[in-house]
Design brief:
This protein is α/β, with parallel strands linked by helices. It contains 10 helices and 10 strands. Helices cover about 40% and strands about 15% of the residues. One of its GO terms (biological process) is fatty acid beta-oxidation.
Length: about 260
Amino acid sequence: MDLIGPWETLDVEAGKGGVVVVRLNRPERMNAISPVMLEELARFWPAFDADPDARVAVVTGAGERAFCSGADVGTVADRSRARTGIFERENRFTPLQNKVRKPSICAVNGVCAGGGLHFVADTDFTIAADSATFLDPHVSVGQVSAIETIVLSRRVPHQAVMRMMLLGRAERIDARRALEMGLVTEVVPAAQLQERALELARAIAAGSPAAIAASRQVVWDALDRPLHDALRIAWPVLRAHGDHHPDAQEGPKAFFEKRPPEWA
């Protein structure tokens, strides 16, 4: 499948070095998640994972106002239940939900609300523009907040997630506070967000794809396990890569020879 599309609700760019940018592209609706967007993202992520030239994904939003305002309110309020993909099956629109093996970065360029938090929770890390805001309005509009907040509560302080969830619309977290609580890893001026995300993605893409895939596997897996079990499972992965994968020898060799590595 061609990553570039055509897509109706996404704008996908495949740049140099294996970096792929996927923009949620409904700026007139604050990039709200529609059934069509759900379906397109469910096709995009497996295609990205299978593309041998794609190394790192950057997820962001089109326009300056919003990253993603969550599920499209018009769709959720449709009493006819003609809203295939919103509640009728498990979600498959994020890299984590699709078990993507490659790294992904979330670049929040504006309002990130409700379902938009899925991308913060389900990518490897998030950076934000200084104009970004975060909120979880589910309970304020009579909806259950569950999947994204469950994942977030394993990555940032539990009380902070509970406060955001319970206060709903009354709790708006600015970029500075998001950085303090670990919801994002870096805040940059809005005009510099995309270039900084690309800079980080290129740095990741320069690493060994095999070593990155194995490292991501054990660290994500550890979130679901007690420390002792996580270490017990990680050790054989580390040993197998060191003993059998050529990148484990190529990396040190290239370092001492002062040249770029040639990954297998």
